[in-house]
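Q: Could you write out the predicted structure for this multi-component system? I'm mainly interested in how the pieces pack against one another.
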Amino acid sequence: MTIQSHPPRHAAHLVLYGGLAAAGLAVAASAVGYRIFVEESRIGPGFLPLVARLLLAVLASVLLVKQMRAPRAEQEPSHEDVDHTGRTTEQRTRVLRRVFALLFVTLLAVQYLGIVLAFGLLVLVISTWLEGRRPLPAVLMSATSAAAMYVVFAVFLRVPLPTGVFGF
Amino acid sequence: MIENLLLGLSTAFTPMNLLWCFIGVLLGTIIGLLPGMGSSTGVAILIPLTLTVEPVTALIMLAGIYYGAQYGGTITSVLLSTPGEAATVVTTLDGYQMARRGRAGAALAIAAIGSFFAAIVSLLLLAGLAPPFAELALRFGPQENLAVMVLALVTMVAFSGQSRTRAAAMATVGVLLACVGVDAGTGEARYTFGNINLLSGIPYIEVVIGLFAVGEVLHQIRVGMAKPIRAGFRDLMIRRQDVRDSAGAIGRGSLLGFALGCLPGAGTTLASFIAYGVEKRVSKNSKQFGRGAIQGVAAPESANNAAANANFIPTLTLGIPGGATTAVLLGALTVYGLQPGPLLFAEEPDLVWGLLVSFFIGNVILLVLNLPLAPVFAQLLRIPYGYLYPIILFTSFVGAYAIDNNFFSVWVVFVFGVIGYGMKRFDLPMAPLVVGVVVGALFEKALVQTSAIEDGNLLMIFTRPIAVTILALAVLLMIGPALMRRARALLGPTRPREDREDEETHV
């Protein structure tokens, strides 16, 4: 069973909208530095950023007020919060954090391993470590996807993909 | 008109031209499947392959890539919520929902049928109206363009249901993102923080890949991965009722797409967003929009195809590209020694009409290829998401790199992937943000030009009849629904507010 996400907390929304409103107002001042008008009253480079930021501040304030007035949603007990793969919310959140971290590490590793190998390894690690696939099918899947990407982008479309120490 | 079409048919219906048209459509579909590899990149990469053939044959193939890529983009938008093309972003909203309900085959089929119908309509309109439309397009100055951009932003916000304020906030954020880079008026760098990659602005294709593809993957992991869809083959086929339900949407989308495609710079993406917005307003099935309405696929798909064809009006008759891909094609024309402009129709009629008729042939090929294949493509959804998402991440990031051969694009995708995930968590609509990013730069350019022409007095825009008409339409879209509700409230009893809220969806 696929579970719907819980509605984000009331406080988180308040922080988001408050942050947007404050950022809109605070950064609007920076637009002035780019000149709002240039010679002959023509629009300068700071005009649109200023107008947009002020508008954002107003809209975020409206959302903030609406959120403050809205009744707090009752948090329902989550005893059935298990998806069709058998993962609980906590487990899913842990997987998500790991995917975030793995993606970040992969992007950093591209300069050493090349883009095809780095992402091929990402597929392998996700498949085995996070998704619990058996090693052989996971290796086959990552090798096939890496080879397909290489053929399509580097060979067929002649995109000069970043290479690493292994030269591909 | 008939002679021109016959001339076009005799040019396009040679075995060589048919073969290259087929190759172009096929390659375009494959290119469209790859995130980031839009039609403009595909056409640019494949121009060298066409240097050995006749100019008309080369153009027929390149045009095939153009609309083939749009259909390819539709396939990934519907099946994986990963738009391969900017013009198919809006298709994810209802197409993906249809796929999750086991109706991916119908969504893909209606996209092919809608595109085919749009090709016929736009071919007839091109044949009959190319010269007067080109003349009308010439009357579109910066003031009118500014009004069109306002209309685009208002349309997206106006059709966001209960989340109008949030949609407006997100559209504003999109416009702000578009402000990053070199200012169109003075050449001054803004908000680049010394990063040379930001001088040309935040690239919107990367933004789209990050928000829709990576953001969706992260969201799916968080909420519990989507179940494999095990719909029967019969359910995957399009039904006669689906076609009947979509007929109006296809007609409206085609006409709207054609009209917008004639405007230089408006492009197919804008056409698809506006067509979706309008359809959401006028459709009898409007409450299903965002939840898997077939009209929400039919309208934008017809619009982007009609706009793609109509883009050739300013390109061929004025030498002004209608969008990014036609800008590349314009370059290709000069490579082949042709001079686009008003005289091209008179001097190279076989080339122009052969090319225009090839749109029709190409779309027939697309329909024949894709209608039976739609349920086959839909089988992709049987694969468990745990297998799919690492591949989606792989394709998205490599595709993003291939746009500019620049690793900065990959980081942009990562950042916007995280932002996209956050937006889904907070139920913030993504489509207005994308429209803001796409329209923002064009909007500012038109604003600066209008200001320069009118000596800083923007109110002079109200002396231009076409601009005033477009702005009036925008105002009507904004306040029309509220006025209607007021009028209904005055005339009769209203339904409880909760009922109305149930009908609204976020896009």
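A: Regarding packing and overall arrangement: Residues 2-491 of chain B form one domain.
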